[in-house]
Structure formats: structure tokens, C-alpha cells
Design a protein that fits this description.
Pfam families: p450 (PF00067). InterPro entries: Cyt_P450 (IPR001128), Cyt_P450_B (IPR002397), Cyt_P450_CS (IPR017972), Cyt_P450_sf (IPR036396). GO terms for molecular function: heme binding; iron ion binding; monooxygenase activity; oxidoreductase activity, acting on paired donors, with incorporation or reduction of molecular oxygen. Belongs to the cytochrome P450 family. This protein has helices at residues 22-29, 48-56, 78-85, 92-96, 99-107, 111-122, 131-146, 154-164, 174-197, 205-213, 221-251, 262-275, 307-311, 345-362, 369-376; strands at residues 34-37, 42-45, 61-62, 282-286, 290-292, 295-297, 302-305, 378-380, 389-391. By secondary structure, the chain is of the alpha+beta class. The chain has two domains: 1-62 and 280-333, Uridine Diphospho-n-acetylenolpyruvylglucosamine Reductase, domain 2, CATH 3.30.43; 68-265 and 341-363, Cytochrome p450 (Orthogonal Bundle), CATH 1.10.630.10. The strands form three sheets. It has a five-stranded mixed sheet with strand order 1-2-7-4-3. Strands 5-6 form a two-stranded antiparallel ribbon. Strand 8 (378-380) and strand 9 (389-391) form a beta hairpin. Helix 7 (131-146) crosses helix 11 (221-251). The longest helix is centred in the middle third of the chain and has 31 residues, at 221-251. The radius of gyration is 20 Å and the shape is globular. It starts with 21 loop residues before the first helix and ends with a strand.
């Protein structure tokens, strides 16, 4: 098991990859509803009621700065084109253009069939691949399969997506951004071919998206970009959800009987999304003066929204520090809220549960394997908001 780190994180951003940020979040919740952090130059929302208020202030608070809808480093590149069309990175008409179709398609997906397909795809991931890499490959390849890619193409789609998601992080260097743009171009081209050359396989998420959007070939660049976006949302966030669920099993021996059934695995994943989420924080940017929790924000101000802290707020979830797979009313904000709530929450949990089942069958079948995994330890990938474990 990893050694407990007693010191607090350096700041609320560093908390995302800290060994145990939750005591630190508790101290923040005891402070002002909105606290100014001079070093980060942001307002910090840590309590559930304030976090919810921020996420609901769609008119005044946006997901991107008004002057920079696309990160400067991506402007004019294929990665920038994809980023600029993503519904989760946009507000107003741009957000509404394709979101309803995506939402209806995801809501109509057969989750039992998706779970079975994910398990089948998992069998094709080489057993010798490092565990920390499998966390990404299992959900990404499953989603690519659901989107209509032939199984022979899944390893290449996996590699492209791993390259592409680098553009979503401000920590990426020039080489990573160049690779992300190359991957974005390839993925856009492949989706264009998938939708233009033949009718997508019946029952795929791709066919559902096309049906719900009443689209015909050639598809708009915006819709193609949001198909890439479905894959990118599956990559880091679901990898973290899968990895953190595996950590929960190493820490909580009492959970292991639950891991024998699909419903039990899903319960573990859903509680992990609350207890130790893969997306620890997000940001909102004021486009006009607004008052939040009694604090006046000026246009241009940024708010760091600590989703993981809100999940551990006792006013939001009773006994928040206990890992309880069965909860009367589990409340989670890590998949967004209100207009920006993630329509793929159920699918993400399903893919993570299938990935967890595959890992337990193929990677940790021996009775003492989870204990050994916990003893070897883990750390977290560098990130400003993601909590994705790397097993040592």
C-alpha cells in the first residue's frame, strides 16, 4: 500500500495528483465560500452549494475565456479545429448545435450490449501491455468499437487518441501538440470515411448519432469533431475512473465479493466516481460581472471549481469519507451539471466496470494479486485536473 503523505498539496491545482488531497479539501470547505488564491489568480469554490451555484450560472460563467475560445497554442491547427467544435468546450448556440443529438444517441444505447462488447474488445488488448497503459486502451478501444471502427483498426485509433488528448492539457510541449494535431487530422478523416462510404453497423453509437442528428454525408466538420470528442472524453476520464476503482479494491478488502458480479463492479465504479473521481476540478470564466455566494466577480475572473471537494462535502453526501457502494442518494458533479452535464455518464461507468472486470480476470486472477498491487504502490500522472494512477 502507498505510504500516507501527511503534508497538504501546494495549492488546489496540485491537489489533483496528490496522494491524498481530501483532508486539504476539507480545510478549504471550512474557509470562505469563494476564496481568492493569489498564486493561481483564481477564485476557488470548494463547498458543494457554491460549486453547484457556479455550474448553474451559465449566462455569466462560461467554460472558456471569452477572449480565448480555443487555446492559443492550438489556433489554426487540426487539433484547434476539433477543440473549437466540441460541445463541452462551448456555450450558447455552438453548444446546442449537436449536443441534443449526442444526448439522445447516448441515452438510447443498450448498456448491456455495450458492456459485452467492451469485454470482447478487452480480450484483444495484449495481456503483456503495462497495466497503466491498459487503463487507457480498454475504454478507448471499446468506445471506438461502439463508434463503428473495425476491430483491426482499434490499436491505431487507440494510439491516435492518446496523442490527441495531449492537446487538452496546458502541460503539453510543442512536440506533443504537433502529434495531437496529426492525430486530430487522422481521426477526422477516418470518421469521414466511416460515415461516407457505407452505412454504419446497426446498433452502433455512430449509427444512433447519425439517426438522431438527421445527418447525411458529407457530415459537417462540427459533427465529425464531436465524434472525435466522444472518444477523447472516454480516454483520460475513463482511464482514471477505471484505475481509481482498481485502487479502491486494493484498499478495501470488504469490496472484493462485490467484484464477482457485473452489478457489484458497477456499484464500485459509481462510488469511485464520487469518492475519488478522475476529474478533480474544472474552471469557469466570467464574461460579465456576477455575484456568486455573496462575492462579486468581475468580467474576466476565473473560478477553479473543486468537484472532488464538493463530493466529500457532508452537506452533499452523508458520511462522505466512507466508501459506500450502496448509497440511498449518491450525488456526483464530476460528470458536469446542468447544461454541461455529461450525457455519457452511464456509458462511462459501464465501460469502466467492464474494464475492471477484464483486469480482474486477466491481470489479477490470483487471490493475493490485489494485495501485491497495493503493496507495489502507485503515483499519479502529471495533470492540472485529472487523477489517473500509474502503478509502480
Amino acid at each position: 500500500m502507498t505510504t500516507a503523505v501527511l503534508t497538504h498539496p501546494a495549492d488546489p491545482v496540485a491537489a489533483a495528483t496528490h496522494a491524498d488531497p481530501y483532508p486539504y479539501y476539507a480545510t478549504l470547505r471550512d474557509g470562505p465560500p469563494l476564496a481568492w488564491h493569489e498564486g493561481l489568480r483564481v477564485w476557488v469554490a470548494s463547498r458543494a452549494d457554491v460549486v453547484t451555484q457556479v455550474l448553474q450560472a451559465h449566462g455569466a460563467l462560461r467554460v472558456r475565456p471569452a477572449a480565448e475560445p480555443v487555446p492559443r497554442a492550438l489556433v489554426g491547427s487540426p487539433a484547434g479545429e476539433v477543440f473549437g467544435h466540441l460541445v463541452r468546450m462551448n456555450d450558447g448556440p455552438a453548444h446546442q448545435a449537436h449536443r441534443p443529438a449526442l444526448q439522445r444517441a447516448l441515452a438510447g444505447l443498450d448498456l448491456h450490449a455495450a458492456h459485452a462488447a467492451a469485454l470482447e474488445v478487452a480480450r484483444q488488448v495484449p495481456a503483456q501491455a503495462p497495466l497503466s497503459e491498459a487503463l487507457f486502451s480498454l475504454p478507448v478501444r471499446a468506445m471506438a468499437h461502439l463508434l463503428g471502427f473495425d476491430d483491426t483498426a482499434l490499436p491505431q485509433v487507440d494510439r491516435w487518441m492518446r496523442d490527441f488528448v495531449a492537446c487538452l492539457s496546458p502541460l503539453s510541449n510543442a512536440d506533443q501538440l504537433q502529434a495531437a494535431s496529426a492525430a486530430a487530422g487522422e481521426l477526422m478523416n477516418r470518421f469521414e470515411v466511416l460515415t461516407a462510404n457505407a452505412s454504419p453497423r446497426d446498433g452502433t453509437l455512430l449509427s444512433a448519432v447519425l439517426s438522431e442528428s438527421a445527418a447525411s454525408a458529407p457530415l459537417s466538420r462540427a459533427l465529425l469533431a464531436n465524434l472525435v470528442g466522444l472518444l477523447s472524453q472516454t480516454c483520460d476520464a475513463t482511464a482514471g475512473l477505471l484505475g481509481n476503482s482498481l485502487i479502491a479494491l486494493t484498499r478495501e478488502a470488504a469490496l472484493r465479493p462485490l467484484a464477482r458480479t457485473r452489478d457489484g463492479l458497477l456499484a464500485i465504479v459509481e462510488e469511485t466516481a464520487r469518492h475519488d473521481p478522475s476529474v478533480q476540478n474544472t474552471r469557469r470564466f466570467a464574461i460579465e460581472p456576477v455575484e456568486i455566494a455573496g462575492t462579486s466577480l468581475a468580467a474576466g475572473d476565473a473560478v477553479l471549481v473543486l468537484l472532488a471537494s464538493a463530493h466529500r462535502d457532508p452537506a452533499f453526501n452523508p458520511e462522505p469519507d466512507r466508501f459506500m457502494p450502496v448509497r440511498a442518494r449518491r450525488r456526483v458533479l464530476g460528470f458536469g451539471h446542468g447544461m454541461h452535464a455529461c450525457p455519457g455518464q452511464a456509458l462511462a461507468c459501464t465501460l469502466a466496470a467492464a474494464g475492471l472486470e477484464a483486469l480482474l480476470r486477466q491481470r489479477t486472477p490470483a487471490p493475493d494479486a490485489l494485495h501485491a498491487l497495493g503493496a507495489s504502490g502507485w503515483h499519479y500522472r502529471p495533470s492540472v485536473n485529472g487523477r489517473i494512477p500509474v502503478f509502480d
